[in-house]
Amino acid sequence: MAGCRPLVNGSTWTLLGAAPRYAVSVSTRDTTPDASAVRTEIYRRMSGSRRCELAVQMSYDARRIALSGIRARHPEYDDEQARYALFRLLVGDDLFRRAWPTAPALDP
């Protein structure tokens, strides 16, 4: 993951080979301002590649959790159907139809 740099573009994080820019503040309901400051300082001390590794891991974890939710709501889906439902959830209906035109549009 070396050279992986986060760039804030509006509210979307993208991986580009440019100098890093960081979100000034991210509001969370379950984190005190003191805890948020500690977390921010920890992230600032990490290397860019380590922050990128964490972002990739959090993205993986979020997808795994979403897929578990899909499987819990739709036990009748096989593995492929559950993945298609996840893809539809992640990219939206329009892009899903363009990317997988023959895939079933299953409810997530």
Describe the structure concisely.
The protein has 108 residues and is mostly helical. The protein is 56% helix and 9% strand.
> Mean of the pLDDT scores?
82
Strand order of the largest sheet: 1-2
Major sheet = 2 strands, antiparallel
Helix content: 55-70%
Straight-line distance between termini: 31 Å
Shape field: elongated
Please give the count of helices.
Answer: 3
The stretches of 5 or more residues where confidence is low (pLDDT under 50) are 5-20
SS content category: mainly alpha
In words, what does this structure look like?
β1 (about 5-10) and β2 (about 10-15) form a beta hairpin. A two-stranded antiparallel ribbon has the order 1-2. The two termini are about 30 Å apart. α2 (about 50-75) crosses α3. The protein has helices at about 35-45, 50-75, 80-100, and strands at about 5-10, 10-15. The chain has three helices and two strands. With about 110 residues, it is mainly alpha-helical. The chain is elongated, with a radius of gyration of 17 Å.
Strand-helix topology:
Layout: E1 5-9, E2 12-16, H1 33-45, H2 48-73, H3 79-99
Antiparallel strand pairs: 1-2
Could you list some keywords that capture this structure?
108 residues, mainly alpha, two-stranded antiparallel sheet, 2 strands
